[in-house]
Amino acid sequence: MExxxxxxxxxxxxxxxxxxxxxxxxxxxxxxxxxxxxxxxALGVALLGLGSARVVAARWLPRKVVxxxxxxxLAVVLALFLRTFCVQAFKIPSGSMESTLLIGDHLLVNxxxxxxxxxxxxxxxxxxxxxxxxxxxxxxxxxxxxRDFIKRLIGVPGDTIEIxxxxxxxNGVRQEEPYAQWIDPVTYPREAPxxxxxxxxxxxxxxxxxxxxxxDNRDNSHDSRFWGTATRAELIGKAxxxxxxWNPDNHxxxxxxxxxxxx
Length: 263
Known about the structure:
The chain is α+β, with helices and mostly antiparallel strands.
């Protein structure tokens, strides 16, 4: 059944315009170089303009143009809604999470688990559950929010983190970590310049509202030992599943890794 035009223009135009406005609002709340922000502003302005045009000027456009616009608007709104609030794809760019995650692994990240957040809000509208130790989390790098990092959550607010000769202790308890690997036989003392925090760190108490991360490849990971903690607002979501794994050395898929749940 075909919708009357006076209803269709709002059904197809208003969500597209609101999506554009929300994208613009997200960028107003972000900080980054112009080359990173401007394309996002342009997308938001384009969607806002297309949605507004559908409401105001559709009667003067050819019917075929309106039909293509409506089909495209539904696809765009659905895709952007899913990416913004539900699921996001992420590609592993480095070896800091080996051997749990390899370079070339493509992941789906659950963005709803830690809560849906609207522009300008520090806290989510609702939360399925709080971040937990052991979660593999994608988050914005605190020193450059244009970059996304993926690490394992080691300490939640209030935890005391300590590393003694490459052994991790949380709240004074030695941690059993079957996923962690050490590839460098050298253990650096706490006083060693640059590398000191890698093998001997803390004790450090995680401040309220902040989270401590480490890569599973402990000898080759730029993580909270070196740059500090991430805030709740910087957490994007929990890694769920590897939907594709591509070997960069031979340019072939790793079929045995495809569909693997991340743990």
